Amino acid sequence: MLDILITSKTRVKLLIKFFTHEANRGYLRGLAEEFNESTNSVRVELNRLSEAGILVSEHEGNTKSYAANRKHPLFHEMKSLVAKYLGLDRLVEVVINKLGNVEKAIVVGDYAKGIDSGVIELVLVGKAINKEYLEFLIEKAEAKINRKVKVAIYEEEPTEMNGMLLLSI
């Protein structure tokens, strides 16, 4: 859906990077390497998104760092649009809400970092979660969102997780 509305693949990657997790930041060369794109194509899109006010930048020494502009009037809509594109909204709807005993759902790994790798890693925190029913729901969700879903279940929230994105349930 997002790639139909926005024809620039680099721009789609940037939107995913910055709007999946508010804390995601990036700089030109790092983003170009991450996306396997030329620095010129990434620079053009960073400039366009910055000029539109969707991204903000700040200088950190000799490096210019970019992030989503949380004060932009469309910030929450952009986050929602990216979540829908990635299928996170359907994942919450199909898997998490129907289990009933889930206290928290946390996206970790590539998607928490804003990288559309095709595998969504999810940590569920809750007690007495029906694992067989969860497997059935994951299969259903994978078919709907066209992505692989890996789930880890904990009774209490793990103390350390790198790059996590809390989903509202």
TrEMBL record:
**Origin superkingdom:** Bacteria
Protein's name according to its UniProt entry: Transcriptional regulator
